[in-house]
Amino acid sequence: MRGTGPVVAPDQNASHQLSTLRRFLQYLRPYRKEIPIALTLVAIGASTQAIGPFLLGWSIDNLIAKGNLPDLLLLLGLLGLIYGLGIVAIRGQILRVGWIVQRLLAQLRQDIFLKIQSLPMSFFDRSEAGDLMSRLLNDVNTVNQAFGQTIAQMLGNTLSLIGIVIAMLAINLQLGLLSNLVVPLMILTTSFFARWARARFRVTRQTIGELSAKLEEDIGSVREAQAFNRVNLNIAEFDVLNAANRDANVEAVAITAAFLPSIDFLNTLATAAVLAYGGYLAVTGAATVGVVTSFLLYVQQFFRPIQILSQFYTQAQSAFAGLERIFLLLDEPSQLQDAADAIEMPPIQGEVIFDHVTFGYNPNQLVLKGVDLHAYPGQMIALVGPTGSGKSTIINLILRFYDVSGGAVKIDGVDVRSVTQASLRRQIGIVLQDNILFSGTVAENIAFGCPHATQAEIEAAAQLANVHEFITSLPEGYATQLGERGAPLSQGQRQLISIARAVLINPQILILDEATSSIDTRTEALVQTAIARLLKNRTSFVIAHRLSTVTQADQVLVIQQGQIAERGTHEELINQQGVYANLYALQLGAASATEVLN
């Protein structure tokens, strides 16, 4: 099982967390006009919450104590209007802030997807699809839960808290200062738990990424797991990762469970202090009953936003852990960016040159060591050799999935690093051993590399690929819907559709990587005929373990340990009685034995 790449975030301090928040808030820039509206609604809602206790306390001293029932009824009506306005404002702020945040998160998902699509192949060599999906889905969803659902409340409660503090200090300075004595304790408590929670939530984001990667891998290989009787072992491995994720989440929940009662205790402590000292002031005549009542109401309101803010701060630790992983991905360098002065690749004629090319996926371990080759337009170049010798690497360098470590790859005399990747790959077709089809219609799969192709062009490509008759026999013809990876088509049928896909883009350079393996003999004949048509007047590079498929090649290159050990035509290499001749004799003998057995 591969590593998850740059998944584990380094230990982050508070300043780095603030930097992460600032970066996240940059996504608010497109909504400059909407934000003042939302803040206005927040301010109105907060103001209505702060004015209520003052009016109630004032009514006790000036209306209820004096038996002024008419004015009391008027005040109650005013309070009703104020609280009604507050309800409308709070609903409006939730809708407006939610509208902004959801668009912000949609843009974040878009940025992640665009980044994944633009990353070089070397990134995917060390990363897992499940973990990348976890960042796109789980981590963004965690941010949504923290910010999308509570940010409006957080803003409102922040303003409410400011208004309450001002009102308390204005009504009675002594009681106001007493009520605020617990604030430093609350800040210390929140800071302690937040630091503890941050580490735990970071672990939860990492473990859910590992769990997603394992799940994606095992679902995709369930057939192999059952065939090799590995189901129980896979279940055991999943149980380990699942338990690690469970334990991380339990620890995070335990922190929250300890944090909230601590805030409640401070709330009770402040209420008791206000009640005791306020009662004393009321008895001694230093404060009225209405003032004490207002303070008791304010203390309850004072701690409610603090509780919400504190709870949000704890939840935000999980969101920050997710944002750290997201930004680590977004900061991943795109090693194969087009050069600043890159040009469009001119129409390819088909000449391919490897000029003393060296390359290694790991800088300390070269895969290709000084490879020189020259393919002329229209030639068929066969690459043969043992697994791991460097055949597929040569193909990857032609497509510029990687950059050479030394030397140069040139097409029609143009270094592939000097042209845009899109204009290069647009003119190169590829048919792999295990071609992937996508959920969609047969026609959409054929037009995958040429989405604007007409139906007539799609059908012409299918006819050239020997798959038109099969497609028309399907229940809905070219409109037949395929499932994931082309289900329920056979391997050979998927291969023929992949050939049609390559035909449609009309490439001048064609790459075939084991295109006829893993299919039955009858389908192989159709595939070989389709390939023969496709190869005509095109430069082609063919990787094949079955040497009988490359006997007509213009050049056969025998790759061993990253070097070209032999080169020549089939007949020339047979006459040399070297590596190729021995391989061919072994395969010919195996084929003869198979014919006898059959």
Number of E-state strands: 12
The rounded distance between the terminal residues' Cα atoms is: 39 Å
User: Which range best describes the helical content: under 10%, 10-25%, 25-40%, 40-55%, 55-70% or over 70%?
Assistant: 55-70%
CATH first level of the largest domain: Mainly Alpha
What is the H level of CATH, i.e. the homologous superfamily of the largest domain? ABC transporter type 1, transmembrane domain
Instruction: Please name the CATH architecture of the largest domain.
Output: Up-down Bundle
Shape: elongated
Please name the CATH topology of the largest domain.
ABC transporter transmembrane region fold
The DSSP helix count reads: 20
Radius of gyration: 35 Å
Mean pLDDT: 80
State the strand order across the main sheet. Answer: 6-9-10-3-11-12
Domain ABC transmembrane type-1: 37-318
Domain ABC transporter: 352-586
InterPro entries: AAA+_ATPase, ABC1_TM_dom, ABC1_TM_sf, ABC_transporter-like_ATP-bd, ABC_transporter-like_CS, P-loop_NTPase, Type_1_exporter
Subcellular location: Cell membrane
Overview in brief:
The chain is of the alpha/beta class and 598 residues long.
Q: What are the main properties of this structure?
A:
transmembrane helix; 2 domains; Rossmann fold; disordered N terminus; ABC transporter transmembrane region fold; six-stranded mixed sheet; disordered C terminus; 598 residues; 63% helix; alpha/beta
Report on the architecture of this protein.
By secondary structure, the chain is an alpha/beta fold. It has two domains: 24-330, ABC transporter type 1, transmembrane domain (ABC transporter transmembrane region fold), CATH 1.20.1560.10; 345-427 and 538-598, Rossmann fold. Helix content is 63%, strand content 10%. Strand 1 and strand 2 (368-375) form a beta hairpin. The longest helix is centred in the middle third of the chain and has 54 residues, at 231-284.
